[in-house]
Amino acid sequence: MPAPLFDKSGGYRKLSSFHFATLIHLGTISFCKRFIPFKDDPLGKTAGQMIGAARSGRQNIIEGSERSATSKETEMKLTDVAKASLNELQGDVEIFLAERNTLPWSDQSREYQTLKAMNFPPFQHTAAAVHDFWKWFHAGKPPFMPWLENKDSLVAANTLLVLIRRATAMLAVQTRQQGEAFLESGGFRERLTRNRVETRDAAQDSAAPACPECGQPMRQRTARKGPNAGNSFWSCSRYPECKGTRPIAAKPAP
User: Fold this and answer.
1) Comparing 77 with 233, which gets the higher pLDDT?
2) pTM as predicted
3) What is the spatial order of strands in the sheet that 245-247 belongs to?
């Protein structure tokens, strides 16, 4: 029986990168509402672009996961777009700190290490996946909220930076794993071709004679040149190792 044609897809709610991208998206909306008011926003674009980048990071994880059934290449590209979008957001947050003559937290700082150690519990769901996800998410986010919702804009900005760096590191690992899976098993086009060949060969095997040379099943082929060009014949399935052939008996006239 041919292998399944469509790969698994849509499991993004179980991805840690998606959990952090969701937290970053919501945290960015709150940050911009509180600390980048429209009247102080140069050209009126910064807040919108930051929220848009955060949204793109999250939504491209979703789309990539859903597209994995038919295109591993698209899944990899969208995962990379998600990472690039979060990197763009990181640049805006860094500028926010730079405008205030403040350095981002050191990787060795207590604050950075505390946030680096925080994680969501594994997500498990019933048939009500959407309801279960948001119930689980709201139950798991409280440890992050004193940092994300801090009244000090510098603490909130640094918190976003730490979360973004964690999410982009996860997405980099995902992209590498997706590439390795593609190299190992191919994508949808390869599976489609492989399944068509296997289905065709299975149908032929049921009526194929044994090779007169080695006894293995034969395959129906069409001569491309010579006096029999265009005519079908039986050829050993081990060709070119075995060159055994048989003629195909003509069907009786009706």
Assistant:
1) 77
2) 0.71
3) 218-222, 232-236, 245-247
